[in-house]
Amino acid sequence: MQIKSAEFVISNTDVNKCPKAGLPEYAFIGRSNVGKSSLINMLTNNKKLAMTSSTPGKTLLINHFLINKQWYLVDLPGYGYANRSKKGVSGIQKVIGSYLEQRMEMTCLFVLIDSRLAPQKIDMDFMNWLGENEIPFAIVFTKADKQSKLRTDTNVATYLETLKEHWEELPPYFITSSLKATGRDELLDYIEGINRSLKEK
Ligand code: GTP
Ligand code: MG
Questions:
Q1: How far is residue 152's CA from residue 34's CA, in Å, rounded to a whole number?
Q2: How would residue 171 be classed by pLDDT, with cut points 50, 70 and 90?
Q3: Lower Cβ count inside 10 Å, N or C end of the chain?
């Protein structure tokens, strides 16, 4: 799929204030600093679209970006940022929770996982919660450029093995680097395939 246009539409903390157009949307979630905003910029070929930072906790709002005037990419705040105040953490969790539970347009959630890390409890718990709530998701392993391909592949294989202990069926997964645009075509084709199947319905 070609990205012809990508426009910022609105940021907010209230799911009721998200765009009303009824278009399908694809949201990005994961721990702070895992690379959600960078991935959105990589997919849209626009380094300035979503705000990124080497300091965790940059994205605090639900951010809607309209793509090709037909669907949305949604940048969400990160979870699991230890330096946030208790109030900050519960506020962010509420924003994420209400969006995921209430937003009917949310078509597929991409759960980002740092490709260098061993499985973390916080991500496993989160994916189990998605399963319990029947929220469709795929996994995106990020920052693959930070290590050799062999290491990434080995780590991802170990990760999938751990997932198999909890899940009968594995979710779709992608290996990406926002620096090198790895996985861009695969992710965009996946989204395009879902968009097409929605139109046929
Ligand atoms: P929050 O909004 O704070 O939750 O973080 P985020 O998940 O949106 O992460 P962000 O995209 O802001 O990236 C965090 C840091 O990781 C930045 O310094 C990025 O430049 C870096 N980064 C993100 N993706 C990649 C990648 O694929 N490769 C490399 N080398 N660095 C990356
Ligand atoms: Mg961000």
A1: 15
A2: very high
A3: C
The pick from 38, 116, 177, 187 for probing ligand 1's pocket by mutation, whose C-beta has the most ligand atoms within 8 angstroms, reads 38
Residues 23-41 pLDDT 10s:
999 999 999 999 999 999 9
* Ligand 1: centre distance to CA 117 (Å): 15
Q: What is the pLDDT of residue 40?
A: 97
Q: How many domains does the chain have?
A: 1
**Dist. CA 38 → ligand 2 center (Å):** 7
Q: What is the average pLDDT across 160-173?
A: 94
Q: What is the pLDDT of residue 82?
A: 58
pLDDT bucket at 84, cuts 50 / 70 / 90: low
**Residue 198 located in a structural domain:** no
Ligand 2 centroid–CA 39 distance in Å is 9
pTM of the full predicted structure? 0.95
Question: Of the bound ligands, which one is closest to the alpha carbon of residue 92?
Answer: 1
**Tell me, what CATH number does 64's domain have?**
3.40.50.300
Task: Report the residue among 42, 43, 52 best suited for mutation to probe ligand 1: largest number of ligand atoms under 8 A from its CB.
Answer: 52
Tell me if 200 is assigned to some domain: no
